[in-house]
Design brief:
342 residues; alpha+beta; Heat Shock Protein 90; 5-stranded mixed β-sheet; 11 helices; 7 strands; 60% helix; 13% strand; transferase; cell membrane; HATPase_dom; His_kinase_dom; phosphoprotein phosphatase activity
Length: 342
Amino acid sequence: MSFFEYTKDKRFFFVLYFTLMLFVSLIMIVNDSRNLVLQNLLYTHVICFLSVSLYITIGYYYRRSFYLELNDLIESQKEDFPVEMLEPQNYEQALYVKMIKIVRDNHSKQLQKLIHEKVDHQDFIMSWVHEVKLPIAASNLLIENSTGKTVDFLVDKFEDELNKIDNYVEQALYYSRIDSFSKDYFITDIQLNQIIKESVKKYAKIFITKRIHFHMEEAQKFVQSDSKWLAFIIDQITANALKYVNDGGEIFFGFEEDHKEKRLLIQDTGIGIKQEDIHRVFERGFTGSTGRTHTKSTGMGLYLVKQMVLKLGHDISIQSQEGKYTRVTIHFPKIRNYYHFL
C-alpha cells in the first residue's frame, strides 16, 4: 500500500479535520480581539496540520509492514495461503486475519471433500466398468460356443447377462442423480405390496432358478414415500438378498407398526454378515469379506439405498447372524423428519 492509498483510506478523517478547523476559524473570526485573529488562525492551523501530518505518517509506517506482507501473500498466489505469517498490529487486523483463517479452513475442507468424492467416483466408475464387462464377456463366450446349443438355451443365458447389465446401468443412473435428488421426488401414499410384487417379478427368474421361496403379508400396507425411488431401494435390497441366499432359501417381506413409525422388514436365510462388517455395509464401495468371497460387487448398492432412504426422510437398519439370516429394516416415521431433505 502506497502513502497516497493510505491517505485515501483516511479521507473521512480529513473531512472531519477540515470541518473542525473551519468551525474553530469561524469562532476565532467573530472574536473581539480582531488584531490577533490572523496570528491565531495561522498558529492554530500550522500546529493542527503538523499534528495531523505526524499522526498520518506514523500511522502509515506502523501499518505498512502488515500491508506489505498481505500484498506479498496475495501476489504470490500460493495454493496454501500462509495466513499465519501475518502479524496483526491492532484488534481490527486481528479480526481480519481470523476471518481469513476461517474462510481458508472452510475452503480447505470443501476442497478435501470434493477430492474425496472425485476419488470415490473414479473408484466406482472403474469398478462399474469392470462389472459391466463381465456379462459382456460372458455373452461373447456364449456366441463363440453356441454350436450345438438350442435357441431357447442361448436366449435364456443372454437374458441373464442382459439383466445383470441392466442392474448395473440402473445403479449408475441413480448414482449420477443422487446429488439432484431434491428436484426429482414426489411424496405420496404408496401401496407397499404392489412395489414388492413388482420387485419380485423383476427377479422372478432368479427366484425360480435358485428355488428361493418368497413370503409376504397379504394385508395391504401403505406408507408415505416416492414410488420410483422406493422401488429402486427395494430392488437393490432384494437383489442383494438374492446374491447371498443359497438354493432353496427364503426371503420374507414383513411389516410392523407402532405409534412412532411403520417398518418394512426384508429378511433372507442367506449366509449372513460378520459382526465386524455390519456397521460398514452402508459405506460407499464397501464389499466386506462376504462380497469378496462369494460374489463380485461394486459395493454401491447398499450405499445408494442408505443415501436415498435418508433423503426421503426415512431410516434404515440391518441385523444379521453369520450363517443364519440378514434382516434389513426400512423405517417410515409417522411424523416426517424434513431435516433429511437436501
